[in-house]
Design brief:
about 70 residues, 2 helices, alpha+beta, two-stranded antiparallel ribbon
């Protein structure tokens, strides 16, 4: 898997500074968690779609580039 799960908690209601997130911030955070999980699933199934570990970058390479070009 592309993400680490340390304690079984996927999401919490506090930001990194220990402050409670507003309802809209919480929804936005959950949205991006879902987006990243979907992207990780796609990356594991699609040759050429890759996450650059340690960054916030995704790359399209190899076979997938050729398919997009067609």
């Amino acid at each position: 898997m592309l993400w680490d799960q340390e304690d079984g908690i996927v999401e919490d209601d506090e930001d990194e500074g220990g402050h409670r997130l507003s309802e809209s911030d919480e929804r936005l955070k959950k949205h991006w968690v879902r987006v990243l999980r979907c992207a990780a699933g796609i990356a594991s199934a699609v040759d050429g779609f890759r996450w650059v570990q340690g960054t916030r970058e995704w790359r399209i390479e190899g076979v997938l580039v050729n398919r997009i070009a067609r």
